[in-house]
Amino acid sequence: MAVAAVVLAAGKGTRMKSDIPKVIHPICGRPMVAHVVDSLREAGIERIIIVVGSAAKQIQEVLGSELEYVVQEEQLGTGHAVLQTASVLENHDGPLLVIHGDTPLYRPATLRELVHSHQDSGAIGTVLTVNVDDPTDYGRIIRDSTGGFERIVEQKDATPEEAMVKEINSGTYVFECASMFSALSRIRPQNVQHEYYLPDVLPILREEQGKVQIFNHGDDEEALGINNRVQLAVAEQIMRNRVREKWLLAGVTMVDPATTYIDAEAVLEPDVTLLPFTFIEGHTWIASGSVIGPFARLRDARLGKNVIISQATVLESSLEPGCVVGPYSYIRPGCQLEEGAKVGAFCEIKNTVIGSGSKVPHLSYLGDTHVGKKANIGAGTITCNYDGQEKHQTTIEDQVFVGSNCNLVAPVEIGAGAYIAAGSTITGDIPPGALGVARSRQRNIANWAKRRRSRKGSPKKGS
Ligand code: UD1
Ligand code: CA
Predict the structure, then answer these.
(1) Nearest atom within ligand 1 for CA of residue 12
(2) Neighbours of 62 (CB within 10 A)
(3) Which domains does the chain have, with CATH numbers?
(4) Would you state the torsion angle of the CA atoms of residues 192, 193, 194, 196, taken in this order, to the nearest 10 degrees?
(5) Is pTM, for the whole model, over 0.85?
(6) CB-CB contact of 233 with 226 (8 Å)
(7) 397 has a pLDDT exceeding 80
(8) Each residue of 127-163: pLDDT tens digit?
(9) Ligand 1 atom 8 nearest Cα
């Protein structure tokens, strides 16, 4: 029997004090609820139904259209949320795993074990529990005199004695589907919060249908539920450690793991070296032999083999093998550095191609520019790509030599092999092989300084 899963993600998340829906808050750059879905998928669960509320559209955008969505119009509690899936699960006769969208730390192996344990035990319902030092906010597990499951009591409904219990409900369960829905239709919101509590189905199942099993899982870290930003920060730490460990074991060197931040979706090949204070964000891909940092930030960047990036920021750009960037440079979205290209110190480039072997060594701004192969862009070259209304293109063909401190007023084309004299402001195209000079000619006035010094009535000091 195939296992299906329901993910509860319709809650408002008021304790986050945020305009962003709780389950979309990122952990290692990936929305919280996406981590839950990843774990379910890795655990081999193919059918996944997400219960969404007012943030339905945002959640669907994040998770994609391969999943099923059910809308809970009013947030009347976790039991009410699961009830919304009754019609889509009408014909499902296998086990049903229910999990919260705000518990992103479960490992796939744990979910698999939970399902197996449920199936092996013959229980109607199995609840995953953990023991924690501080059970604040969680539902407490109340066991009967034989140590079996009796009921779950929420913090707000608990007596002082019940509140002392340190075994908590993780919010993850496996049910026999039809039995669960039949019990669910009978729960009532008779509690402090006037909500339909999903945990209330368990005593009904126990009394009417037979066995309810407690699956106590030792690792309380995995069950962490995120209700506020303190818990979000704790989850971030835990997830970061896991991601770092994964890449260290896969052959990546991190000189100082504590100051190396890698998002969940980044991909690193063996023999990548990450130096301290480095941020690898989004869908960044780094091929082997590359050395990144210190103080580098890459977001959605694609790097070939043996790229060197020091103290630089690279956003949404791709760098072919052997490129060198930095220090102190800013590669903005839409750039492509071909093999062996260099963008040195204090440069900014945007929506620009730098051809293979070309160099932009110092203090330049290139925007909307195409640089061919083996060109040299002198220090202080600026493309004037914006006329206040529109952006214009600059084309610099192969083997062009741009002298220092030039302005290239776009749109403009510099033909292959051309030279531009230092200090030129180029406003028209330069044919291949020509020299473009666009600066006023120098003149020297002989003995000027001496005459200046001997001039009568020269201004007094300080005036
Ligand atoms: C819930 C459990 C508690 C458990 C804890 C584990 C209930 C009544 N309480 O408490 O026993 O220890 O999780 O983390 O189940 N949601 C909906 N629709 C709703 C209400 C909630 O989809 O109407 C979703 C939320 O988006 C969230 C999840 O259900 O992802 C849990 O809701 P939350 O309000 O965070 O419950 P807790 O107070 O944490
Ligand atoms: Ca919660």
Answers:
(1) 26
(2) 18
(3) 4-223 (3.90.550.10), 239-436 (2.160.10.10)
(4) -120
(5) yes
(6) no
(7) yes
(8) 999 999 999 999 999 999 999 999 999 999 999 999 9
(9) 197
